[in-house]
């Protein structure tokens, strides 16, 4: 029974972290376990004899101590299991699925009712969509021309944009300082040419793999 009590001491103090460690430190561990076990029994006012026969204590006395330790270790095991379950819920990536059952990508942001989604097929950009109706939220596209023709440009290298019902994603992370003279807003198909400005812009290409609007509603899995 003393040996069983020692095993509980090992469990409670986290000594058995691996076979290699136990083998490498067996003498030190044995000494420490004897010391801890003696201190534990002393605190319980139970005499301790580590002479080796393992039977120096009355069975009922030692069994009572073991029963108490057994309840403690069971409680610790339950707590560890619950913590592992909770952690697994946080570490598992949440997927965004459309109404047709297609997985759109990994949820990386949430601003009700919008889900922001990452998928490598988006050229490394983030797509944010209304989870209720599937409409994509994105900034305007810009043009160096004054009539919204030519290469479409985005002010954000990490965002999927919407233009005339078509989604666009940056096809390069290398932006350049450019002066735009017109733009198309996501919600307004009319070309805006009333002003111009200069800042870093990124070329975009049509994201033909994703239809707009997305099949809604969107759900999380």
What does this protein look like?
- The protein has four helices and 14 strands.
- It has helices at residues 2-12, 19-24, 26-43, 59-91, and strands at 95-97, 103-111, 114-118, 126-130, 136-137, 141-143, 153-154, 161-163, 166-170, 176-180, 182-185, 188-192, 197-206, 219-220.
- Helix 1 packs across helix 3 (26-43) and helix 1 packs parallel to helix 4.
- The longest helix has 33 residues, at 59-91.
Task: State the main characteristics.
221 residues; alpha+beta; six-stranded antiparallel β-sheet; five-stranded antiparallel β-sheet; 14 strands; 31% helix; 29% strand; elongated
Quick overview of this protein structure:
Mean pLDDT is 75; it is low at 8-29. 31% of the residues lie in helices and 29% in strands.
Q: Please state the average pLDDT score.
A: 75
Largest sheet: 6 strands, antiparallel
Count of helical segments?
Answer: 4
Helical content stands at 25-40%
Indicate the structural class: alpha+beta
Q: Can you count the beta strands? A: 14
Cα-to-Cα separation, first versus last residue:
50 Å
Shape from CA axes? elongated
Radius of gyration: 33 Å
